[in-house]
Design brief:
This protein has helices at 8-19, 30-44, 49-64, 72-91, 93-98, 101-114, 127-146, 163-167, 181-193, 206-223, 239-258, 267-283, 289-297, 302-317, 324-342, 350-359. It is mostly helical and 368 residues long. Helix 3 (49-64) runs antiparallel to helix 4 (72-91). The mean pLDDT is 84.
């Protein structure tokens, strides 16, 4: 329930931080207590008293050393614990509906953008953790783009901080969290270029536009002319590779809509939608709400929409996966379908439909 694939690398990193801190015992380590909170939540549901008790311990421990941000170990420990609290809120159905996850995620963003010790974490051994944060930063940018203005994303723009991103080196799929950094960077560019209310300070420079063009070309090349699904073979495909491909396809679909403002009937766009739905069918379940939402909204006929329903149902039933996002994501997809079906002549711009559906919610939705 931590990322698009729950990559083992990320899980091992968190457990190593939780179990190797000499400054804390098992009962006081904020990271370990946060792990216990998530485990209790997963096993017993959002009403678990144990989960809530562990969460309170984490908050108390973080608050007690909130001024110690100059120490690298303290900074890392508190960042990991706060990210786990954010995921705790994500996994709690009532919290997700109220949008309280924003509080913890904004706390993470404030820390990484203001702590003088943050540069000490830009090391290869911390890359998977920094990529984890950037994944959620990028997807929250999508929410901000379509939710109610003037929310400004906690005042900080997403920034890829991992050592690989700084060096311009893309990590191997088995080492990352399941979504390439160049996909997330392109998504952020698309959201910023197509912001609801452009302002002078957010105006894109020629260099930024060129960077977005290069990123789009890279992702298009990775998808290929015939889509990411290869010819049938007896060797099963790596799930992490398929999840990466799913995010690439969803990102290119969104770029077509948000930046290029296509109508959606173009052949190359419908091919991307077809490939995305086929990938979802091959994966059977989808732990990340964002690609499911972006691809699901594009389904236009009964066969495609039934395929989306099947993915939602299988994701909802799989006890190994976080499923708190499925119901809300499916409702949003169905709302977009309804609006598109009512607009038989295509008079309403597609992005206006997304703005109306997402912006009409009382609390900020989550697409991570």
């Amino acid at each position: 329930m931590l990322g698009p694939t729950d990559a083992e690398t990320l899980v091992h990193f968190i457990l190593r931080i939780a179990l190797s801190d000499p400054d804390f015992s098992d009962t006081t380590s904020p990271v370990l207590q946060a792990v216990f909170a998530l485990a209790s939540l997963q096993l017993h549901g959002s009403g678990s008293a144990n989960a809530f008790r562990y969460k309170r311990r984490v908050v108390a421990e973080i608050a007690s050393e909130a001024t110690d941000w100059l120490d690298e170990r303290a900074l890392l420990r508190n960042l990991v614990a706060t990210m786990l609290l954010y995921h705790y809120e994500v996994g709690t159905l009532e919290s997700s509906r109220r949008g309280t996850w924003v509080t913890f995620f904004c706390a993470v963003k404030r820390i990484i953008n203001t702590s003088p010790a943050m540069d000490k974490l830009v090391r290869h051994e911390y890359s998977v953790f920094l990529e984890w944060i950037y994944y959620h930063e990028a997807l929250s940018e999508f929410t901000i783009r379509h939710w109610k203005v003037p929310y400004d994303g906690c005042g900080f723009a997403p920034k890829a901080r991992s050592a690989g991103a700084v060096d311009g080196i893309e990590r191997q799929e088995e080492e990352g969290i399941g979504c390439p950094t160049e996909v997330l960077e392109l998504l952020v560019h698309a959201c910023r270029q197509a912001i609801v209310a452009p302002c002078p300070e957010m105006a894109y420079t020629a260099a930024e536009v060129q960077r977005a063009t290069v990123l789009e070309q890279r992702n298009s090349t990775a998808v290929g002319d015939f889509g990411p699904i290869p010819a049938p073979t007896t060797t099963p495909r790596n799930r992490r590779t398929m999840v990466s491909d799913l995010h690439r396809v969803a990102c290119l679909i969104y770029v077509n809509r948000a930046v290029h403002r296509i109508s959606g009937t173009e052949f190359h766009h419908r091919r991307l939608v077809r490939e995305g739905i086929l990938l979802l069918g091959e994966l059977e379940t989808c732990q990340s709400a964002w690609p499911l939402f972006v691809i699901g909204c594009e389904a236009v006929d009964d066969e495609q929409r039934l395929a989306i329903f099947h993915v939602c149902e299988r994701s909802r039933r799989d006890p190994r996966l976080r499923s708190s996002h499925v119901d809300s994501t499916q409702r949003l997809i169905e709302a977009v379908w309804s609006q598109r079906d009512l607009d038989e002549e295509g008079q309403v711009e597609y992005m206006a439909i997304l703005d109306a559906v997402i912006g009409g919610l009382a609390f900020m939705p989550l697409f991570a």
